[in-house]
From TrEMBL:
Coiled coil: none annotated. CDD domains: RNase_HI_RT_Ty1 (cd09272). It comes from the Eukaryota. It comes from Cardamine amara subsp. amara. InterPro entries: DNA/RNA_pol_sf (IPR043502), RVT_2 (IPR013103). Residues 47-288 form the Reverse transcriptase Ty1/copia-type domain. Pfam families: RVT_2. This is Retrovirus-related Pol polyprotein from transposon RE2.
Length: 657
């Protein structure tokens, strides 16, 4: 956690240490939880949630239970112990005590897109939480509920619900209708691309609100509009302003001057505890290279456990695209998994143990362009010979959506499978365009779509190869239509630069690390210099969790406890990375150095470090001069500002010893 600001380190260090009870009986053993239940009952009474009455003949009451959680402040301190009374909605009967139930929630894709836009346009991000949100919604149906555990009433009487209590099937719909009606009255307009996104465009700017049940993300450049919105919401609901957005749906968000980092570190650290794998060794990759599904084999007995853990892994892919392909593979066997599939799940669980803080870095580039990459693994499934589609999209240069999906039909050629992948990503790109339009953001057109298959690109641009493509579904030609109307523009990309490759197949750790660097997937908790890694780079230095360095080079073994580097017959084994060129020696214990094209017999220093290029330096360059050049390139390293992803690293001692 070395690179995190102090407030974020404190937050992550405190959350998750309190035990949460699983039942009413367990909660009664603690005064704080007893008081939390009393507070919930007071809220129920104040909102006139129900009336006590005898159960009418022919009616069946739904059950209820207590659910407990802990609310945290942005500092990591406990805000309050929360006890929530929920109805057992699964006992409701359609047509009797409920009808319509649908209520939208914010798409996680929309959340990431909104974050990228906010970062690029320097919009602040705020969060608000509605207290007892579902109790704000009015019930239209006649619903009866049994008395809450521990709060019995007169015998024979039940609760006739007036408000949409948590747990009822129609509760989300009732609350969504209440909130959206309020926003509409304030002049907010619902997005056609995402019905949980509301925007208000005024003379001084725009205000955007994204809704996920009772959690709201607010952003925009109209500060007065944001202030007015918060005031109106507080007048209409019992709502709390949580301040700067830091923790949303289990996603940790850290804002810097030059970007935003999102991860699920706490979620990753909790997984081994839940699965009993605390002592297991981390895996180098989420899935073995050259993986082939073993359809036959001994069936795994605990299917529910398999389904539960795969579900947790699916949620982890919100900020871990490197898990996407592996999770896609195991999720195809939810009904009848084998022991082999269970072993795959265990391997995937071990992979993030080695880098729990890894997440998506969103950099401020003052850019709103949209870019897409698509790829396909032709006939990759050896059982049914179906291909796998993989794609990812970028907004403002930041990764916002990704997907790994098995194609529904068998493709007759690699071009056909790639063409189907182009169709899927084109639909995603068009949707993103509509979402940005609703946010008042004009992206550059045409949208660039990269593909590494020339034949597929020709099919998309021209009605060629009719005999080979006449059987392809009509919807695939949606791509051609969008090219013709100028919405997208296709470009060829070399296979080695195809970042969507990790969503279609199991790759080596070297290829996986290279692509992850390109798409902005990094571990903020490891103190390394951020910089682009090019295919021509000879080496890459990364830090292990325990602070040691591992040097990976083409032809040099990775996994050493210390960095080993050999140049022109010089071999040195050191506890920290040390490079000596002629009379210059610079010891860097934490910096990641990329040296591209470094000749074994060079007489002058040539180094490329996150864009730092130095060539032709005299052999008599002093350490003081070296330090001045380095800090001139990276002034933030000497600023001492904790809000930078590149921290100081004690350059006084590390570089200039």
């Amino acid at each position: 956690m070395a690179n995190l600001p102090p407030q974020n380190r404190a937050y992550l260090g405190k959350i998750g240490k309190e035990r949460i009870p699983n039942s009413y009986e367990e909660a009664c053993r603690s005064k704080v939880w007893v008081e939390a239940m009393k507070e919930e009952m007071r809220s129920m009474k104040e909102n006139h949630t129900w009336d006590m009455m005898r159960l009418p003949k022919g009616k069946k009451p739904v059950g209820c239970r207590w659910v407990f959680t802990i609310k945290y402040k942005s500092s990591g301190e406990i805000e309050r112990y929360k006890a929530r009374l929920v109805a057992k909605g699964y006992t409701q009967v359609y047509g009797e005590d409920y009808t319509e139930t649908f209520a939208p929630v914010a798409k996680l894709h929309s959340v990431r897109i909104l974050l990228s836009i906010a970062v690029n346009l320097s919009w602040d991000l705020w969060q608000m939480d509605v207290k007892n949100a579902f109790l704000q919604g009015e019930l239209e149906e006649e619903v009866y509920m049994a008395s809450p555990p521990g709060y019995g009433h007169e015998a024979g009487k039940v609760c006739r619900l007036r408000k949409a209590i948590y747990g009822l099937k129609q509760s989300p719909r009732a609350w969504y209708h209440k909130l959206t009606t309020c926003l509409s009255k304030k002049g907010f307009k619902m997005s056609e691309a995402d019905h949980t996104l509301f925007t208000h465009k005024g003379p001084t700017g725009i205000v955007a609100v994204l809704i996920y049940v009772d959690d709201l993300i607010i952003t925009g450049d109209d500060i007065e509009g944001v202030t007015s919105l918060k005031k109106n919401l507080k007048e209409s609901f019992d709502i709390k302003d949580l301040g700067e957005l830091k923790y949303f749906l289990g996603i940790e968000m850290t804002r810097f001057e030059d970007g935003l980092f999102i991860s699920q570190r706490k979620y990753v650290l909790d997984l081994p505890t839940e699965t009993g794998k605390l002592g297991s060794r981390p895996a180098k990759t989420p899935i073995e290279e050259g993986y082939q599904d073993h359809g036959e084999g001994e069936l795994f007995e605990d299917v529910k456990q398999y389904q539960r853990l795969v579900g947790k892994l699916i949620y982890l892919t919100i900020t871990r695209p490197d898990l996407c392909f592996a999770v896609n593979q195991v999720s195809q066997h939810m009904k009848s998994p084998t022991v082999y599939h269970w072993n795959m799940v265990e391997r995937i669980l071990r992979y993030p143990k080695g880098n729990p803080g890894k997440g998506v870095w969103m950099e401020k580039r003052n850019d709103t362009s949209i870019i897409g990459y698509c790829d396909a693994d032709y006939a990759g499934d050896k059982k049914d010979r179906k291909s796998t589609t993989g794609f990812c999209t970028f907004v403002g240069g930041n990764l916002v959506t990704w997907r790994s999906k098995k194609q529904k039909v068998v493709s007759l050629s690699s071009a056909e499978s790639e063409y189907r992948a182009m169709r899927d990503v084109t639909k995603e790109l068009v949707w993103i365009k509509y979402l940005l339009r609703d946010l008042g953001v004009q992206g550059k057109e045409p949208i660039t779509l990269y593909c590494d298959n020339q034949a597929a690109l020709h099919i998309a641009s021209n009605p060629v190869f009719h005999e080979r493509t006449k059987h392809v579904e009509i919807d695939c030609h949606f791509v051609r239509e969008k090219i013709q109307d100028g919405t997208i523009s296709t470009r060829f990309v070399r296979s080695e630069d195809q970042v969507a490759d990790i969503f279609t197949k199991a790759t080596t750790s070297l290829v996986g690390d290279y692509i992850q660097n390109k798409i902005g997937l990094l571990d903020l908790h490891q103190p390394v210099l951020r910089g682009s890694v090019e295919p021509s780079d000879v080496m890459r230095i990364s830090l292990l969790d325990q602070g040691e360095e591992r040097l990976s080079t083409a032809g040099m073994a990775a996994g050493m406890s210390t960095a080993r580097m050999s140049t022109a017959g010089m071999a040195a084994r050191m506890s920290t990375a040390r490079m000596s060129t002629a009379a210059m020696a610079a010891r860097m214990s934490t910096a990641r150095m990329s040296t591209a094209g470094m000749a074994a017999s060079m007489s002058t220093a040539r180094m490329s470090t996150a864009g730092l290029n130095m060539a032709g330096f005299a052999e008599k360059l002093t350490l003081k001069e070296w330090r001045e050049v380095f800090l001139a390139k990276f002034p933030q390293l000497s600023s001492g500002a904790s809000g930078k992803i590149i921290s100081r690293y004690d350059l006084e001692s590390d570089i200039c010893d």
